[in-house]
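Quarterly update from the structural biology core.
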Amino acid sequence: MNKNIILIIGGPGSGKTTLIDYLSNQGHVCYPEISREVTLEAQKKGIDQLFLKNPLLFSELLLEGRIKQHQKACEEMVDVVFIDRGIPDVLAYMHYIGDQYPESFDLACKKHTYSKIFLLPPWETIYQSDEARYENFEQANTIHSHLVETYNKYGYNLIEVPKDTVANRADFILNQL
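Predicted structure, tokenized:
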């Protein structure tokens, strides 16, 4: 079986979760973004924004979780698995804040690869802040640029998904597979 591990990436508030939820409801195997879990877990321990307080620890937890997602996706008994964000996202966010990270982060990006990357562009009309998303729209644009740069560094061809209804965005992606 030829496994297709498909990423849906983009800055905060670009519609990734809505799209992943839609694909999941259509019967596709989808893995959710895990940064919310890490953030909400830290908030239960009294740390409002772990990424801002201890970015390296936050990133290590994300990296560990995303590696597990990749490994689990490889074991799925289906041809296509969709994942909300990938391992290079961790590095893109570290670049965004200008922080250093261990070489193991880079090695993880090289070892665990993805079949296709779909990029959701910044979209101010749908952008919303919430308890787990601290960035404003301008920061979301900057993060988007870091994502593009980081994924390009690892040789990925990013396929930009047009701003459209969630159903049309999903159809666009499915037609590219």
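The CA atoms of residues 135 and 146 lie 14 Å apart.
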